[in-house]
Amino acid sequence: MVIRLSPTMEKRVARAAKAKGVKPDRLVESILKQRLPAEDKPREQVSEARRQLDQLLKHMSKPADFDAAVHAAKRHAGRLYEDNAGWIERASHQQFKVDDPDDARHVAAALSKKCDAIITFDHHFQQVANVIPVYSPDEFLARLESSNAD
Question: Of 1, 16, 118, 119, which residue has the fewest beta carbons closer than 10 angstroms?
């Protein structure tokens, strides 16, 4: 085996060899024998799964402190509650039911922002007409025209 060292490494090896009282070539050989597996020994077969696991473990982040994570989550939930306390209070007094779950968030948003009405083509919103007025676009335009005529 031929190993070529940079001039800087050659100087370092020469200094280390002189300090140990051996030839530089012998020092390099002894280090290589320690670092590299012997060729006469059969190498241990490593499965692909083990190789992938080793790669994952190499890049795995430091384990999280579970208690600290729970404490941080509780603090975050508290801040969310404080930030949305007014909305939660207003929405909790309004009881409504809609068949389409996607429509519930629109009703909740309209109630929390104190909207005057919901304008939509979706007929599911008629279920909440007792909580907030619901108009189709045509009905709303007609209502606007009649209020402007007055």
Answer: 1
Q: In the structure, how many helices (H) and strands (E) does the chain have?
A: 6, 2
Nearest one of 103, 29, 140 to 131, comparing CA atoms: 103
Handedness of CA 24, 27, 32, 33 (dihedral sign): positive
- Main-chain phi, psi angles of 122, to 5 degrees: -70, 120
Domain limits of the chain?
1-35, 97-150
Token readout for 99 is 């068949």
The upper half-sphere exposure of residue 90, i.e. CA atoms within 13 Å in the direction of its Cβ, equals 13
